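Chapter summary example.
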Amino acid sequence: MALNLVPAKTTQFKMEMHNPDNDKEVVVLEFKQQKDQWAVVPSHKPDDVLFFRFDKQQHCYVKDGIKGKEEKVDLLNKMHIVPNHKKWKKVTKVVFDLKKEQEGSPRHLVFMVAKDGKKKRIISIDKKAVPDMSKAMPEMHLTWK
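The structure predicted for these 145 residues follows.
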């Protein structure tokens, strides 16, 4: 979702959020584009890099670390993503609907997106739609250059 919210030519952006276990700790995820993939570097564990990329069929390939094995994650087969606007830069609400019911997990997740200035967005879970997840998912601040 964050990749869709930033402009297409953006080569790096970051997400900041409070750690749900420790409110005083801020976790920063740095997203950097490297050739045909994205690298995600967490601030609290800079050696724990995650790489991901998408192919033309919108399949996601995730690789944990530099020497990790690449795994295919077919998100579109598991869930249906519905933004409330055709243009992602104007989106204020995104719904993730699970296609198959999974035991112990909510049927859908609703994220609210608010503009917080130029090149800044705040992504938060809708507390009314999914009250159980609102404590587990902190508010995320998305910024890019």
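To summarize the output: The chain is about 5% helix and 45% strand.
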